[in-house]
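Class, study these two lines:
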Amino acid sequence: MSNISTYSFHFLALLVVLLICFIFNLSLGSVSISFVDTLNVLVGSTADDSSTSYIIWQYRFPKAITAIMVGSGLSLSGLLMQTLFRNPLAGPYVLGISSGASLGAALLIMGSSLFSGFFGFSAFNNISLAIISSLGSFLVLSLVLVVAAKVKDTMALLIIGLMFGSITAAIVSVLSYFTKAEKLQHYIFWSFGSLGNLSWVQLLIVAICTMVGLFLSIISIKPLNAFLLGENYAKSLGISLKKSRYIIIIATGLLAGSITAFAGPIAFVGLAVPHITKQLLHTTDHKIQIPAVLFCGAILMLICDTIAQLPGSVSVLPINAITSIFGAPLVIWLLVRKRKMIF
């Protein structure tokens, strides 16, 4: 296994890139703020224009922190899923966790008029949307955990997760067919994903879920490394497969479920970032991979958010589309350059 001190230069470089991307993310937007003014505001100096401090602290700083947590959390959940299922195409969406959040949001947004008499909700706001989306995620996660207790084959569990995703997508399609145009439009906007609508309270909830998910991931480093060599090898090391699978699935549910509930479904990051870090660091050791995906996921999300802001323009592009448009070619380039996939 790798020694983390061997990669000290890599992590130092990732930290520097992260800080640069963070400052640029704060500087660029519909109102352009110079790099120097941004640094002055961050260190507590008074800016020439009083509105500069307000823009940075009240809008851009929370959004940048959100981007860091969303990118890190989704990347880590993708790494956990790819290792657990030993499948490079696995990600936080394969178990239907994100689909469960989408179903919760669809029920609240599009089903409020249809089911208001049964469920008692006729109006919604960001808080109720986040709560219902989280409940949808954990409902699907609970079903997966029940199935996981009966199915020993992780590949079968992967397929069952995809089936849960298909079922929830079908229900959302039915709701979309019967709902009013303005409700459908609201749901579509939520599905675009957004990093700028979270309050400090919502941000705190996401941070707590991310920290718990990270803690569960860290205590699972040994099982994760053993899973790379097969379940029989993990058994020979005395690792409890059932317990480890539960911990990894719960960690993924907390990370992907809470982020999707508050920021909307953001594709590609969970799938691609683990591959990017493996190509850059040439290791599959999770003692190295876990901090690496946290850095790379945060950097990628900050870059995508900066692009989505269309600096100098009042328009904002959907973050969900930007992560795929600018991230997918990067993975293709890395794989073509390295000529093989490290897994």
